[in-house]
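Support case: user asked for a sample of complex input and structure output to validate their parser. Sending the pair below.
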Amino acid sequence: MFKKTFGLKHSRLKCFFANKKGQYVVTLDEALEKQGFREAHEAGLLGYGVKVAIIDTGIDDSHPFFKGKKIEKYSVAELPVRDGHGHGTSVSSIVLSGSPKVTLISIKALSDKGVGLLSWIVEALEIAAARKCHVINMSLGSKPNCFSPLCPIIDLLPQVVVCASGNTGPAPGTVACPAHCFSTVAVASVSARTGEIAWFSSRGRTCGLILPDISAIGGSGDMRGVRQPIERLELPSINGTYAYARGTSFAAPWVSSAFALLVQSIGRVPSRSEQELQMKIMALDLGRPGKDETYGWGLLRADRLLRVPKYFTPKPLLEIVRKLLTIF
Amino acid sequence: MRIIVSIVPPLDEEKLSRLSAYGKVVSWGRLIPYVVMDVEKEKILEIIRLPFVTGVQEDIWFKAQQVEMFFRK
């Protein structure tokens, strides 16, 4: 009667586990509340004028959730623009929940089987750069490779690049490529109920860096829910359906949304050092004090964006300083 | 085999012609300095030694980072 899927196929049968004992479902509203997005929205931070690129399986914007949203669609390697997998649509829905007024640039670089070649991903990054996006979300990965050409390429990009840390935990040193690159923000998944790191979430020092950088709600639990109860997110998906999903894929877009709100707040893309400092400010410290190899800086709290520090010089002020310098 | 090579910017004609000596250049970035090439495996070590090359990797598969997804209408 029921079909369990692990990414490659999916079932249209009615979800059976929503109320099953020991398994939990987190709605978008609940996740928004627990990560402080409501307060940020009430303060006027909604992502106005910010472009967020999603490099994923595309988007199926036929779902009522996407009505009235600004969405641009691209694809690479002659893939059809429409999402036939569901992953990209669910990731996009999280970004549009956290920052409802952003312009979403969906770039399909993963096929309808949820996989894509490195050359497709690099091509997608070029589209994102050409479209002058402010934030790039990459909920994808492969085995760690410290010498991957993706790392120097991402280092050159002026955008904030947010990546899922991977689902190969709990062993240390398992953070996926490209999350382990110096210039990316690696996001781990934590439980919405307990704040505990998800069993599957990749962690630990990888390529000489303390990773992950930050944690967000992306579901939790081991494969059978024995060591840790299973928790899934309820997300809009393809063909007007809802998906129940978990994985660091669904934690990364919350952080992308938070950076989109930050870009609106300060009027420009923060530098890498500013990103690190901002993560320290907007995270609720979990685990060991400071940045650790399990939670990074801690759980994302978007309401802490309202405490934007003085070192973030707004763009208009920078322009005035530049003009004064040219005069004198 | 197909490989991706990242280059120290800018990606100019000279660098492209030097790389094309090792195999067929399939495509390259206009904004981002990368080259997609078809080369023989033995040539990869020689490409890595080029002074303007910052990274080389086979064109491997990446996958969406979900543990599982279920659907309901």
